[in-house]
């Protein structure tokens, strides 16, 4: 029976092509979602009338506040996305946390711009799935 244990004399174990592909995919989607978030934030900041505000919504924030939230999340997404391209552990952990935060923020943003928010939530879930696959992030 062959041994599959790590042997330090052989160097680092080879990473699966699927894991590297998932990481590159996650990094690409992170940068794309970052740009989407920045655009949504800038639209809310420059044109308060663009997003229709739902009446009697429990989490009723000013559209400018949503703009700042999306802008900050977008900038952090871009930074984490570029960090993922270098396969750093901190970038992977940060990206997962930011994707969860972004999905939550967009869940609360659904009454303002529903289809956009649902698409971004779906992309965030896809990023989390890609990063949590075995071998995607160096440890």
Got a strand count? 0
SS content category: mainly alpha
Number of alpha- plus pi-helical segments: 4
Tell me about the biggest sheet? none
Tell me the Rg in angstroms.
18 Å
Spatial gap, N to C terminus: 28 Å
* Unreliable spans: none
Shape: elongated
How many domains make up the coordinates?
1
Give the rounded overall mean pLDDT.
Answer: 81
Helical content (DSSP H or I, runs of 4+): 55-70%
Portion of residues in beta strands equals under 5%
Which sequence of SSEs, written as H and E, runs from N to C?
HHHH
Describe the structure.
The protein is built from 4 helices and no strands. It is elongated. The protein has one domain (17-48, 60-131). Helix 1 (17-46) runs antiparallel to helix 4 (114-131), helix 2 runs antiparallel to helix 3 (89-109) and helix 3 (89-109) packs antiparallel against helix 4 (114-131). The longest helix is centred in the first third of the chain and has 30 residues, at 17-46. It has helices at residues 17-46, 63-84, 89-109, 114-131. It has 139 residues and is mainly α.
List keywords for this structure.
mainly alpha, 139 residues, 65% helix
Short synopsis of the structure:
With 139 residues, this protein is an all-alpha fold.
Itemize the secondary structure elements and their pairings:
Blueprint: H1 17-46, H2 63-84, H3 89-109, H4 114-131
Helix pairs in contact: 1-2, 1-4, 2-3, 3-4
């Amino acid at each position: 029976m062959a041994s599959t244990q790590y042997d330090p004399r052989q160097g680092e174990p080879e990473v699966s092509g699927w894991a590297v592909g998932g990481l590159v995919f996650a990094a690409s989607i992170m940068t794309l979602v970052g740009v989407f978030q920045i655009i949504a934030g800038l639209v809310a900041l420059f044109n308060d009338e663009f997003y229709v505000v739902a009446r009697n919504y429990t989490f009723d924030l000013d559209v400018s506040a949503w703009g700042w939230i999306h802008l900050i999340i977008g900038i952090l997404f871009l930074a984490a996305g570029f960090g993922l391209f270098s396969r750093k552990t901190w970038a992977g952990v940060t990206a997962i946390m930011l994707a969860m935060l972004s999905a939550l923020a967009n869940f609360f943003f659904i009454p303002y711009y529903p289809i956009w928010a649902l698409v971004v939530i779906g992309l965030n879930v896809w990023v989390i799935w890609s990063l949590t696959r075995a071998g995607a992030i160096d440890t």
